[in-house]
Structures are given as C-alpha cells and as structure tokens.
Amino acid sequence: MNVKFCCKVAALPVPLLLLACGSTEQAKQSEEALSQPVGSPAAYWQLVWNDEFDADEIDQRKWNVEEHCWGGGGASQQCYTKRKANIQVSEGSLKLLAKKGSFTGPSLPSGDKRVTKTQAYTSAKLSTKGKVDWRYGRVEVRAKLPQGQGTWPAIWMLPSEEKYGQWPASGEIDIVEAVNLKTPSDAKGVDSSALEDRLYGSLHYGRAVPENLRSGKDYQLPNGINPADGFHTYTVEWEEGEIRWFIDNVHYATQRQDEWYSQYRNNGHLITAEGAAPFDQAFYLGLNLDVGGSWAENANATGVDGDVFPQALEVDFVRVYQCTVERSSGKGCNSVPQEANLVEGFRPPITVAVDTQFAEGPRFSLFDDELDYSLMLNSYDPRNAMRYRLTADPYRGQVIEISKAGKAGNVHLTAPETNMNHWQEGGQLIFDLKLLSHAKGAKLLVKMDSGWPNASDYEVELPALDTWTEVRINVADLAARGNSLVSGKSVDLTKVVNLFVIEPTASMDLQIDKLRFEYPEASLPFNFSQRGLAYYFSDFGGNNSQLIQDPSKQRSRVALTRKSANAAGWAGTSLGEGAGFSQAIQLDELKPTMSLWVYSPAAAIPVRLKITDSKQPDSFAEVEVLTQSQGQWEQLIFDFSQATPSWQSDTRYNKVTLFFNYGVRGAEAGEQVFYWDQLKVGS
Fold first, then answer.
1. Does residue 545 register a pLDDT over 70?
2. Total of domains in the chain
C-alpha cells in the first residue's frame, strides 16, 4: 500500500454494528467509531485513509479533480469541470452535480487545451490517482445516487500502473454503478409499473479492449427502497485472490481469481499473467457522474432526458481499511461463508508456447499505443533541438510525437543487440506517419544501425500535412542503401542496436504510430517451416490455433488447433486474413485435389476442408475425410470432384477453412488437440 499521509487509527476489540437507513439526516460518526467499518464482522480492520467531507472545499491532498470533455470509452456526453457549479463540499457531503448546458473544454483526458470539444452537459470526476493507492483492503463509500434517464454514477478503482497492459487487461473494480434510476425498469419479468432500482458491482479484466470481459452481479435494496431516495453504504472487500461486494453490510457477491484473468501480448505472443493478476497491484479510487454513454443511453427509455437535470451524486464519506491479520495478502478479516454468492466469471483461454524469441516474425511490433517492453525511446541531440513524447490522439490512442528545431539530431528505438537478418527475406518496416510541419527543403530519413557508423538510411517521401499515411520500407532495400554520410558503411543486420531511427534533416514536427516489422502474408502451399512469411489464423466457435515446434520432433514448425471443451460442433479455423488469399486456388481440372498432413488424437475423426470465394460466401465447396491413425502424422487427400456443393472450375476460390471433428461439440468429445502442416494443391 502506498499512502502519502494517514489518519488516526484504532482497532476496537468488539465490532461496531450500524444499521443502514435511507435518511440524509444521519449524524457523523465519532472518531472512535471510524476505526471500524460499518457493520464490520471482525475487529481486525484498521482505518488507513478517509474523507468525511467536513470542510467547505475539496481536500487537494487527497483528490485530483479532472477537467476535460473526452467522454471516455463509454462515449458519455459531459465535460468534467472544477467549477462549483459541478463540484461542491457543503453540509458534510461531497456533491458531484450534472447539469444541462453547452460547454467547451479539452477533448483528451490529459487536459491538453490545444484540442477542444463541446458537450451538451457538465459534471464532475475526481480520483486519488497519484495521491494515494492501496493493494487490498476494505473500501466504504456512503452515497446517495442520482435518478433519471441518462444518469450514470460510478464508484470504482483502477490500477495506478498498467502492469498488464491497457484497460482492462490491468483490471478495474467497480464498487457500485447504476443507470437511469427511477425510470421504468427494463428488467425481464417485472411489472410494467416497476421503476429501475438495480445496483451493480463488477470487475473488468481479460485482454485489452476490444477483447475485454466483465463479470459481476446486480443487487436490489430490500422492501422496494430505491437507491436514489437516500444514502447507502457501498463496500468492497479485497484480498489476494478474492473480492467481495456489500451494500449496507449485506454481502451479495464474491468473485475469486479462478474466475478472472489477465492476458497481454508481447510481440504478438499471448501471455497469461500469473497468480491473482490483474488484481494483485495497487489501485486508486475514483468517483464520477456521467451523462448518457453507451450503457445509460441504451437502457430503459434510451437516450438522455434533459429535463431531469440537474442531478447529483452525493457522498457522505469515503473510508479505507486494511486487514491487520495479514497485511501483505489482505487475508484474515473475511467472515463471509466460503460458497456465498459466488460470481461466475471467465477463465483464460489456453495458450501454448510459440516462437517467443525477441524480434521473431511474422509481426514484430515496436510501438502500438505503447513501446515493446524491451525497447527504449532515446534521442541523439547535440544541440538541444529534439523533443519527443507520447501523446494521445483522439482516434488512435497514444502516438509518438517528435519535434526538431534544427539540423542535428534524431530519435531512435534502442534494444539489446538483436539479430534482424531474417527480415531481409521479404520483411518490411511499416509505420503510420503524420506530418505536422516542416522547414522548406527538409528531408526525412529512416535508419537502422549496429553502432555508428555502421548504419543504413532510407529517405521517406514527405506526405501531405495533417494526414496519416502508411509508410512501407523493404528491410533488404534499407540495409542495402548503406550510410549516406559515411561511404562504405552499412548496418550489420545480425547485430542491430537501434531498430528504428527517424531523422529529419531540418526543422520538422511529426507523429508516428503502429510501428512494426512484418512479413508478407503467406498463400498456398502452407509450409510452416518456411520463414519470412506471415501465417494468419481466424478461429471461431471455440477453436484456438497457433504455430509451435512439432512436439513429436518429426517435423519442424507446425500449426496447433485446440478445439475446446465448450466448442461448437461447427468450430473451425480460416487461413489468411478476412479478404482471403490474393491469388485464387488453382485446382487441376482433371484431378482437383488438395492435401494436408495431420496428427490426430484418434482415428476416424472427420476433417472437413472448405474452399470459398471470399467475395461471394455462398460460392463454396467442401470435402470431408476421416483420419486413419492415432498419434502419428498422416497425409489426408481431399478430392474436390466429390465436393458438396460441387466444385466449379470457373469459381474464384481464394479462402480455406478447416474443421476438425466437424459436427461434434466440445461438450461431447472433450478438449481435443490437432497438429497440421503442408496444406497444398494436389498430393
């Protein structure tokens, strides 16, 4: 736990029980009472941080107040401001006020005022980010929620560092959220006169958006009480491997680490984080009231009812406790039964060991919203003319921005000495470039080097200003050009230290994004041992395919397809990207066959091969054959003269899809693993 300051603490030998109610008149508790959580079942919680909002303004030692009009991933319609019209502390409570009225402010969460946006509403958001954070503990927030169509209050926690990647791969804990309270309920099976009263506690995790996951439970207060009518205490207890939710000290949900996960990519390879990740690191606390957004606007009456505003999220207190039994894990203060109200979340998709050597193909990403963990962004700047930073683009996320105010200097990405020689075999250096300004006559050089003067450079044609343009440079061409400043010198691709150097020859401002090395996409025949090509798989229905070294050691690199235990009968794997191969599949008209080597877990398993015209999906032909052996490589021959529907010689088939054990669900067969290689025309 990282705390910049702390308050007085005292552990009581007997827990203090408070009955929650909806009254706004409840008096503040005494200092002694604060030392135990509301309704705490144990005497081992120690108060480590709190805000009772007894002053007449925000305590800036504890809170950051955001100012921007971004709208976030939920695409909400408010600008957050610091104005007293939107955020107040009075009469012992914090009030976040959402109001109708046009407002213009920074369009990015960084608050950069150079780029602005106008929204139809204003509201407020504050957090403890950079002030204080915690790893494990009990967080209590006593609050009264707003009502009306388009209101979206949230009390949440986010990681101080994105240790496992971008949101939500590094996790999010939602202590409570609600939308559109007291509007007609859209819950299934309720009376038409019922009003919205559901409260939600949840976790966000998995992979970075858009492969993210959410799980949790909703809760309704007893006796028809609506959360918008009074104050209630919203609580999360968080220990290593387990998170529990309470409202007014009623436990309604528990989620454990076997029902969440974090996966992130490292140079295209999927890594599953270990242990209780992502909920094993320090998180900070946040409060906000949004207007509209993807959830609120698509629920209940839909949209935003401007007539319900102003509305307020009112907070009586925020208290954070730590379990003193075992501080390192947060364990020892739980009194909830082991199997009480468990949340069914998601378990990580199985990953296999693939080519994990640094800078391996088919795609080696240097920068895509963040730098590869092995790289460092540096500059050669003898005259203090270079400036570089990561900055937010409203449509792309983080990009690299570079400014040069003279002739000397460059920006480069440095790595441990790296063998890039294999990229000469068709590999390309690719990046998106946006030119913001440049001096007359300025040129732009891209370089690779293995220690000066062993460098090669390539002049990039300057695009139009303020337009993103993709730049592609053949690695072989770049290496062959050598050093334009030192005759006879060039990069040694077996010992590269600066993988990417960008050097304007005069004053220039530019941005870089999606920087990577790529191989050209493979087409038939598919021989996975061949390097210098990109092999793409598109799995569906519960398949998971990757390239690995043949476990039997009989072949070199092969494909592995895992048909999971929850896979559909039609689960399959398409080869190539969505548009299909650039060249049509040319079968022999007299003997229209294709072949595939397969290593099957059993004999008599149906393997179906489908070829399709990607522009006309109804134009396809497929053939099914049975494996003849178990646990050994065999070649399967697919005779398209027997295809269903019939193979047509004049159809431009350019897409291939494989189905293993077609028609059999994973629930029936259990998880099965198939290895395959050398898909080609003929035998």
1. yes
2. 3
- What single DSSP character describes residue 669? H
Spatial distance between the Cα atoms of 498 and 416, rounded to a whole number of angstroms: 9
d(CA 239, CA 216): 17
| Residue 245 burial (10 A CB sphere; 0-12, 13-18, 19+) | buried
Instruction: Map residue 296 onto helix, strand or coil.
Output: helix
Q: Which residues are catalytic?
A: 172, 177
Q: Is 463 found in the same domain as 419?
A: yes
**574 and 473 together in one domain:** no
Instruction: Supply the pTM of this predicted model.
Output: 0.54
316 in a structural domain: yes
Backbone φ and ψ for 448, nearest 5 degrees, come out as -130, 145
Instruction: Assign 354 a pLDDT band (cuts: 50, 70, 90).
Output: very low
- Residue tagged 């702390």 (tokens): 6
Segment 221-268, tens digit of pLDDT: 999 999 999 999 999 999 999 999 999 999 999 999 999 999 886 654
The secondary structure of 447-516 as a DSSP string is: EEESSTTSEEEEEEPP--BT-EEEEEEEHHHHHHH--SSSTT----TTSEEEEEEEEESSSEEEEEEEEE
List Cα–Cα distances, 237 to 38, 233, 314, 641, in angstroms: 12, 13, 22, 64
Q: Which domain holds residue 176?
A: 34-50+126-323
Q: Is residue 146 part of a domain?
A: yes
pLDDT, tens digit, 9 for 90 and up, residues 434-483:
999 999 999 999 999 998 899 999 999 999 999 999 999 999 999 999 99
